[in-house]
Design a protein that fits this description.
The protein is of the alpha+beta class. It contains six helices and six strands. This is Ribosomal protein L7Ae/L30e/S12e/Gadd45 domain-containing protein.
Amino acid sequence: MSTSKQLPNEGKKRLVIKNVLADPFKVDWPALEPDVELQVVERLCDIISPVGKYRVQNNVEARAARKQKASGATPKAIEKPSPPQVSTQFSYGLREIIRGLSAKEKASSNPTEPVFTLILACHEDIEPKILLSDVLTLAVQKNVLVCGLSKGTTQKLGLALGQSRVTCLGVKHNAVDFSDIIDMLTPILRQKTSFWGQLTSSEPVLQRTRIKRLRTFAPILSKTADSKKAKK
């Protein structure tokens, strides 16, 4: 039985730190200061909470009607309340937001198309991040204000709307109930991002190059192994 002779230190590894260029196509979401974000989220939940209560009430009444029907009893006629007025001033959900952003060009010919003035996205709660890339791209193309919210916001918004979670929310134009939020965030977001407005200087400041450090391993070869490789 033949066995291969192992060279000294062969098979061992050493830690190597490599500096590489970060993804040049990555765009950071405009973010708010923690105290400002807390104030915005609390106010936002207060505004949209009537929609959540309306949904919960409808679900309870629907379940009660199904139980009565299953038992053979004649269901009582219940007059359903009309949806809260604020429900027409915003949309939520990834599909609805992308649909509304894509339809903005048709808004002049069809006023019923949803047109947003502000997009709030819970990008820290979403994995993978590429799921929200279309929202950011479309918002920039259509000159719509966009803002990223910190981790945990998706559950807060979902609780206010009677949902398990809410990935993003879009405020429509002329949304009266959201006017205070729009007035507060517009100057902040326009100052934080270069997506909107004109350059204030003839010499724009370029974004700094982002370098990330990767931890990897490299094999440790003895001098004998190095000399054999050199001869080859």
